[in-house]
Design a protein that fits this description.
The complex is a heterodimer of chains A (341) and B (208). By secondary structure, chain A is an all-alpha fold. Helix content of chain A is 72%, strand content 2%. In chain A, helix 1 packs antiparallel against helix 2, helix 2 packs antiparallel against helix 5 and helix 11 crosses helix 12. Chain A is globular and about 70 Å long. Helix content of chain B is 25%, strand content 22%. Classes of the chains: A mainly alpha (341), B alpha+beta (208). Chains A and B meet through helix 5 and strand 2 of A and strand 2, strand 3, helix 2, helix 3 and strand 6 of B.
Chain lengths: 341, 208
């Protein structure tokens, strides 16, 4: 219809970007660490670091979402697993269940290693509590592979959910397309490899992990290059696509935070650092550590700018532009020549 | 056959008196102190006609479009947003946890917050008649509580210019059904596939 207005939203902002970032990173870290442990190299310490970190990340992300709810008690409606039968069309229903069960199964999988770990078993109070549940560790080991796969399936679901959540909003061209879940999956796994490289270099630091580090670095280089290709596709889509996508283009591609911050320092710089690492190698681990930090920052920036650059097209201005104190000046309203019919 | 309720808004006859906003606010106890309304009349200037310098003043009432394919309902994780058999999209305040996914999904920007603070403010503002007990992401309900009693929505009842018309699309004799069938009234952003049940008669097409 004639006289359209274009606006972004102020409903889901930086805190949702953090939630999506931590959800993707935590989910992918569980997948990679358990797969590594089951099928590549047995690595109890990696499992401990990855799965406990993931548990903390998902807790922080979920807490942020919970704090921003309007009606906190009603959250029980979505924590109930029956929600999948009552509301199978809502991705938040699936996402909540994926997150909860991923946290449960990944911790059950980690539990036997927790019991063996001197750090945790000697910790005051925690250690004595752990001793009470020694039987649970034995039980977990008995079904370790099945439990591992249950954690992996829910973790993959969590990663997928972070992209599908945005895709389910039809009014925003930037979000409502199959490229978003794909981009978020690739980004999640890239950030998770970066995070695990940080863990391997800075905290575990064992000589025999060299082969795992090389594998992670190689995979991360491939993932970053795929991410760059997807970003190029989004450049084309927003620049030559629907009208609301074109307004997104002006928000993204004229923004130095997106271009220099995300694409430059979040993708290109770590790509070249890691590429040199897997081809000619580095004498010190410092460049890889730097690259991993940059990938993590880039992973957040991607989601941050995605949340802020989603443009709605409507025949009237957005509500928040009429909020108290939000006086709208006519020259700021974007109008265009009407299109008949 | 069950009724299928719809609204037609004639932009030619809306005079921007805002009586619909006041009637709706009193009927549904919306947090007007925070400038949040179930229906809002925008006072806009738009270019119109073949001459680019031709400026028109336009009053544009907005509300929930009660879509037949409502994205706010499909994204709602708790089932709080649901559709009645008569086509009206409702919100169950007790089920709603206020995640605001519906607000993100709605192409018409029809959803707004009712917070804990608004509940307290409502007790003062609306006095003993205050009925809201839970925070939620609220929206227009076509005044379903009135419609069930055979009444029209408050905004329609109070509209001085007969700009708002409310009726049953399943009744071929209903004036609203006739206007919609004639094609004079069109839905907003039908390309999104939401199949809205609020139709607008354009003021700009008539002017040109």
């Amino acid at each position: 219809m004639e006289g359209m207005f274009y606006s972004t939203q102020e409903v889901w902002t930086w805190w949702i970007a953090i939630y999506l970032f931590l959800g993707g990173l935590g989910g992918a870290a569980v997948v990679i660490s358990i797969m590594t442990n089951m099928y590549y190299r047995t690595h109890k310490e990696l499992i401990l670091w990855a799965n406990i970190s993931s548990f903390i990340m998902l807790s922080v992300g979920s807490l942020l979402l919970f704090l921003h709810l309007l009606h906190h008690i009603a959250v029980i409606n979505v924590l109930n697993p029956m929600v999948l039968i009552n509301k199978p069309d809502a991705w938040i229903s699936w996402g909540t269940q994926f997150i909860v069960w991923m946290m449960v199964w990944s911790m059950v999988y980690t539990f036997p290693y927790l019991l063996e770990s001197p750090f945790w078993s000697r910790m005051p109070i925690v250690g004595s509590i752990l001793k009470l549940f020694g039987w649970a560790g034995q039980l977990s080991l008995k079904f370790h592979k099945i439990i591992g796969w249950l954690a992996i399936i829910n973790a993959v679901g969590t990663v997928l959910y972070t992209g599908l959540l945005l895709q389910s909003f039809p009014a925003v061209a930037l979000w409502h397309n199959p490229g978003v879940p794909l981009l978020f999956i690739v980004s999640a796994f890239s950030t998770a490899f970066a995070f695990l490289l940080l863990v391997l270099y800075l905290f575990i630091d064992r000589e025999e992990d060299h082969v795992i580090k090389v594998f992670y670095e190689r995979t991360d280089v491939i993932l970053i290059s795929v991410e760059l290709l997807i970003i190029f596709v989004f450049f084309h889509f927003t620049t030559y696509g629907l009208e609301s996508a074109r307004h997104t283009a002006s928000l993204l591609w004229e923004n130095m935070g997106w271009i220099i911050g995300f694409i430059g320092f979040g993708l290109l710089v770590p790509f070249f650092i890691e590429l040199k690492g897997v081809t000619t190698g580095w004498k010190s681990p410092a460049p890889i550590v730097l690259a991993a930090v940059l990938v993590l920052v880039g992973g957040y920036l991607l989601r941050h700018y995605f949340m802020y650059a989603g443009v709605y097209e409507r025949p009237y201005p957005a509500q928040h532009e009429f909020a108290p104190g939000g006086h709208v000046e006519l020259d700021k309203l974007q109008t265009q020549k009407p299109v008949s019919g | 056959m069950a009724a299928h309720y719809a609204m037609v808004i004639d932009l030619n006859t809306c005079v921007g008196c805002n009586a619909c906003m006041a009637a709706c606010a009193m009927e549904n106890q919306t947090p007007v102190w925070a400038n949040r309304w179930r229906t809002y009349v925008h006072d806009l200037e738009v270019t119109s006609g073949f001459l680019e310098d031709q400026i028109r003043r336009r009053f544009f009432p907005r509300l929930c479009n009660h879509c037949d394919n409502p994205p706010c309902m499909s994204v709602c994780p708790t089932g709080a947003t649901h559709k009645l058999e008569n086509g009206i999209v409702m919100v169950d305040d007790d089920l709603c946890m206020g995640c605001r996914a519906c607000a993100m999904a709605c192409p018409y920007d029809a959803r707004f917050d009712v917070t804990y603070d608004d509940l307290k403010e409502g007790e003062t503002f609306y006095g003993s008649l205050h009925f809201r007990t839970s925070p939620s992401v609220d929206k227009c309900s076509f005044c379903s509580h009135r419609v069930m009693r055979g009444l029209k929505p408050a905004c329609v009842e109070t509209c001085v210019g007969y700009s708002r018309m409310f009726g049953d699309l399943n009744d071929p004799a209903d004036p609203v059904a006739k206007i919609v069938a004639s094609g004079v009234a069109k839905p907003l952003m039908s390309h999104l596939g939401t199949r809205p049940n609020v139709f607008y008669i354009s003021d700009l097409e008539r002017a040109t």
